[in-house]
Amino acid sequence: MSTTQHQRQHIDTILRTVADTEARTPAQNEAGIIARSWRRCIDRYGLDPARPTPARYVPGATLREHQDQADALLQVARAGVEQLYRQVAPLSYVVLLTDARGIAVQFLGAKSDQREHQRTGLYLGSDWSESHAGTCAVGTCIHERTALTCHHSDHFSAHHIQLTCTAAPVFDPHGQLLAVLDISAYRSPSAKESQTFALQLVKTTARMIEDAYFLQRYGDRHIVCLDRSREFVQINRRYLLAMEEDGTLVAANTAGRKLLRHHGLPLPEAGEARPFQAWNIRDLLDGEVSEVLAIPQHSDDRVQAFHTRRHREIHFATLIEPPRRPGANRSLPRDSSLAPLEALAEDDPSMRDTLTRAARLRNEPINILVMGETGTGKERMARALHDSSRRRDKPFVAINCAAMPESLIESELFGHEPGSFTGARSKGMKGLIVQADGGTLFLDEIGDMPLQLQTRLLRVLAEQEVLPIGASRPIKVDLRVVAATHRDLRELIQAGRFREDLFYRLNGASLRLPPLRERADKGYLIRQIFAELNEQRGSRVRLRGDAMSALLAYPWPGNIRELHNALHYALATCDGGEVVVGDLPEECVHGQLAHPGASQGQALSTATGSSARPLHQDLLYRALCRHQWNVSAVARELGLSRPTIYRRMKRLGIVPPNQQPAS
């Protein structure tokens, strides 16, 4: 069969399968996974199987950002990836490690085949997200959260049907997707069963990487290892549980989380943006915490048998590298200057990685760009960087480039001489840049700065001097700039609305803040902000459990800023000494808006039945009101396109005020 005929047959198979599955849900096996993915490619992403999808690569600077974000994992995973490559290289496989967005951040393959690797996309920096590449091992693994083989014509794009690719997910200690490990080959037997061993090998290596990351992340906690076999408990390390001194469980590996669920201790499923539910080791094992902690001291082989409380199963337990007691190593004193940074997060892996980089950068003479959705705490991060640096005793000056009128930004930033323009102050004014001399200048929403002022700011950063309006001599300044944005500056550069040279001046290093819905330490943030507001009000109000549960379940489209406002509202309106669920804003209890981090706008897109429509009509209406009927802003909040918002409005009968008939 010729290549063209093979591709045509492949396209027909996809279209026929998608048509056949219109009225039913595909089976929960690998064939069903592939069929679901084909259907997403057509219905959700608008891909065409007849149109080949060539390899796509992110720019070098973007790749470095992705690698920086995955730095902690890459350090742990390197040995596992290299070991896997040594095993599969003789069979002409390449190995890719991608981040949770499908960008290849590590690659190992034969140098002699580099041109073929780059042509096919099996190379560093390639984008294997399902929305671009179609059905493929990496992209479909990210969406389905399960290991799979995408063999030859399983791929959606005819560009990839010569490949066989096998991928497995790597989860963090809270069940959030960290990365995907993939092996791929250009030539392989036609039977998919030929990849069975490859699938097991990749799954085993992914689990090794995942557990190594777990052990590094919780090396300062007691780590309990459980297994059904005494002989293998110290070697296999199947179930890993990290716990505090009192037995409180703070994290578990994937197998450990399954064990807890099996014994009636429910936890968030993999991919759910909810925090780890803190149980105690006593809830799982029929024994005291002291017995578990005493295993290394009182057992010759460091293994002890326990029954589980619910199913009475026998598990053998050991401790892995128990932490040093306080004072055991006085040569490494805790750096108290890092306290402002450490207060920003508790037990969220993504935030801890970001804060580790921030700690390294806090005294470096480079400008920093902080990125993240609106309300994720970018100014808090900037202030914490300042307060933990050697500049802490100098000014921290913040300006919101989006909130200040364009006519005032120039004089506010650069200052002016007396009488330099109509309306100028009689004594002149020292600009914010000069006021920040010796300290930190925080430029929030830098993407909204007018182009002409971007040119002047670039000159300030390049020459470290400011020329006030109407002045003849510049003023020397010593400052560090921290800029922040929720926008894609590279898109603005391509649109001619942001200077590329200014971007590189500001982006000496970048820090990305995750949205609140994706953070594993939401409970910590809720308690922290609630305590701060209590202190400001001079009150001692308690947050009751039902209110906390509602706050944890809400997706927080407005992020930390919305959380702060909701808690402020609850404290202001509660009756008595505690906040209950009825004291929270209505949307926190009933209006759980969909968000791309949850399910690609699922809540709005599934409003097809009459019973669901009133709720979604109310949610969309509230979002429109909140953004003064700015459809672009609502689309960004809900993770949908503007045309989709307009279609939803039309279907739900929502009419903007300026289009309603006069009464």
How would you summarize the topology of this molecule?
Layout: H1 3-20, H2 30-43, H3 60-69, H4 71-88, E1 93-99, E2 104-108, H5 114-120, H6 130-133, H7 137-144, E3 148-151, E4 164-171, E5 177-185, H8 196-217, E6 222-227, H9 233-236, E7 239-243, E8 249-252, H10 254-262, H11 281-284, H12 289-293, H13 295-298, E9 304-307, E10 314-320, H14 339-342, H15 349-361, E11 368-371, H16 378-387, E12 396-400, H17 406-414, E13 415-416, E14 429-430, H18 432-435, E15 440-444, H19 451-463, E16 465-466, E17 475-476, E18 480-485, H20 489-494, H21 500-506, E19 509-512, H22 522-537, E20 542-543, H23 545-553, H24 559-573, E21 578-579, H25 586-589, H26 596-599, H27 602-605, H28 613-626, H29 631-638, H30 642-652
Parallel strand pairs: 11-18, 11-19, 12-15, 15-18, 20-21
Antiparallel strand pairs: 1-2, 1-5, 3-4, 4-5, 6-7, 6-10, 7-8, 9-10, 13-14, 16-17
Helix pairs in contact: 4-8, 19-21, 22-24, 29-30
Domain Sigma-54 factor interaction: 344-572
InterPro entries: AAA+_ATPase, AAA_lid_NorR, GAF-like_dom_sf, Homeodomain-like_sf, HTH_Fis, P-loop_NTPase, Sigma_54_int, Sigma_54_int_dom_ATP-bd_1
Keywords: ATP-binding, DNA-binding, Nucleotide-binding, Transcription, Transcription regulation
